[in-house]
Amino acid sequence: MFKRNLGFGRAAAALLLCMAGAWPAQAAFPERPVKLVVPYTPGGAADLLSRVLAERLSQELAQPVVVENKPGANTMIAATQVARAQPDGYTLFLASNASMVLNPMLYRKVSYDAQRDFRVLSVVAELPLVVVANNSVPASTLAQFVDYARARPGKLNYASVGIGNPLQLATELLKSRTGIDVAHIPYNGSAPALSSLMANDTQLMVDVVSTSLPLVREHKIKALAVTGAERLPVLPDVPTVAESGFAGFRAATWFGVAVPRDTPGAEADRLREAVAAVMRQADFRDRFQAQGLVIQAPRGQAEVDAYVAEDRERWKGVIQANAIRLD
């Protein structure tokens, strides 16, 4: 009897082992292509960043990462699409301070909630800005321009690419920190704004480095300061605003990777690690340096959350002080 029971136990154990071997193991994430939704048209700096990032992520994740351009409504069309996507880790969003910070504070109607609908996994790149001036202005430094403007309150103009645009908000932040009174003249794009600066219709502009840099190098306008925390390799002799006598000043647009908020933690961690691996690649950093894009050091989730929260507080004050609301 004992031997029969022993034999039965061995047979049952063997059957269980066979069943365990036949049961399919849970597939490692990701097991199919991943989509990166980009809220900009093809061809710009953000689009190029997304495509190179997607190519490198494909290698890290061992799955294709496909870029889908979805421009419109100042990034809100794409953001809304991703906010409503299945939170399974297969839909990524090229987030920015426009979509995650500014739009919810600027627009009366926004069809997504940046804080409830998204988790920003990584801040991949910062796009520092440069303070440029007309050549005829008798100032070669930001401090000199501030003195010149303070002596002429309300008589100078600054150009921007539109009300509520990050460039306009950065200029208003600069005005509040330096105490200058300079009138805002909005233009429909960087080209007419820079043309007005060269024609001396406006005397000051805060611009992205990539569009102003050629004009600075051709001595058609002059660079007074950069707005980031550090000097830029493409403008090594141009000090930061903080170095120019306004300690703590910092303003930059940024691009990162976000997913729907309810994306499971394991999938989110896998994606964050893959993005971090790409950001550590020296040739990835070097590729964008010439365009003024500063690839960031990888941050943990708590650091990313703190970065976005600080950015939100910075621009909240500017928007409220200037009562800027957009329809």
Automatic annotation (TrEMBL):
Alphabetical UniProt keywords: Signal
Keyword Flavoprotein: no
Gene3D superfamilies: Bordetella uptake gene, domain 1, Periplasmic binding protein-like II
Signal peptide: 1-27
PANTHER family reported in the protein's UniProt record: BLR1237 PROTEIN, TRICARBOXYLATE-BINDING PROTEIN
Sequence similarity: Belongs to the UPF0065 (bug) family.
Protein name in the entry: ABC transporter substrate-binding protein
